[in-house]
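Many introductory courses stop at the sequence. We go one step further.
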Amino acid sequence: MPNALMLAAEAGKSLTVNGPLKAIKLFELNGTEYWITESVIVQWLVILILLIVVLVLTSNLKVVPETKRQAAAEMLVEFVRDTVHGTMGSKYNAYTPYIMTLLCYIMINNLMSLLGLRNPTADVSVTGTLAIITFFLVQYNRAKTGKFKGYFKSFIEPLPFMLPFNIIGEFANPLALALRLFGNMVAGTVIGGLIYFALGKFAILIPAVASLYFDIFSAVMQAYIFIMLSMSYISSAECE
């Protein structure tokens, strides 16, 4: 049980969470210590995995697919392209590379628990950073489509007194986006640990079944939900 084992205590003892986020001290300079967190290290590993996968899938490409490797790569591209087209519209097809990168990056991060590592998405600073990127893309799309006048007009519609509420809503969306992914990944970890702890010596099959849901299905689903909400926020910010 890769992820739950990090939270479960031995049978007969109290269940405790695996402490705070781990960090490694890099060096100390002029009395200042410089640390690097476990989330950053795991994300470097995720970037390396994605780089290897991309190099493998995109090597020796043919106009007509001759290998299952190229066919799989094209199926993935077509899936994301159709998702962007169906959610945002054809004029947003340029977002396809970004959405694909976001989907793969979040999904691999969510699945790192299968290797016995901490999910970076169980760190709110990671999910918060991804949500901030979406927030700035929303503002960029609103400013691009509405220009200066349309951008500020969107904050006072339908009535001028709605300005404070519209501003709150602008910041509430990325906050909800970050906390949704963070909360679901942490909840899966905690629930898995509770199941393992409750079963004690009988923790054989049920924790493995729970792992299939929390560590695989839920991880993939949460990545998909994140990109769908991101696309919805970006496209709905368009000003007429």
